[in-house]
């Protein structure tokens, strides 16, 4: 949606949740101009969030919002405290439909981003609490981590095939890929070799009977420390039954900035709730090592977004390698 939401439309949406907006403004995200609408009401400040269908799933938008709402309801009933409160509409649902688009409303969390080791310890606890709380109620079975590994292997193969085109796209890309292409392949090959370890293969088979909900999009912008110093995870659109190991690896990559103190704090907090066995640590370390940003950058090598990914990888390359070594040490601690 490129245009701002009209006041009339916002009133129609909020009316279904028993709210009357006094003022409103659109908040942009990295990907969308109007990602969230912040509304002021007599009872407080709230966030209206349009729900967008995951294009990688074959199910409809309505089916996806119903599934998401069911998972959120489960967490609310389990007193999971690390997400904003979702409001119930006048139909009893956690969402409403307007002009064919589902919308939901949560309390607005005012605060700051992750800043220190204490914050990252709490983020680790939050993610472990999500994984352990939901595992008591979810019965869906499936090859969660194995399925994601298959997808990433395909992306790695495409990365190697697209390399020539990526190098030809511009001089900057050529310089980056000539410098790092070999190393990307080496760290990927090592990860694939580790994932073939019989102990990890056995762990992945046991995972079939240990389903859990994962947030699936833990990034720095999606974690807020409120003014009263409580941690909240926002943007639950991608919640699903999936791999806790993938969730941990992605959260480490997308929040800690390769800072060893932040990485150790996150893992310390997580293991206070859910102690990890050596094989589980090795699995997480292997998944963390994969250079997923480089794979994504070769999909559209001439785009500004791809160039930005490569610039970030260039700036953080040595830190990334040190973080990989840190996780290797963590396996045997």
TrEMBL record:
It comes from the Bacteria. InterPro entries: Aminoglycoside_PTrfase (IPR002575), CotS-like (IPR047175), Kinase-like_dom_sf (IPR011009). Residues 69-274 form the Aminoglycoside phosphotransferase domain. This is Phosphotransferase. It comes from Paenibacillus aestuarii.
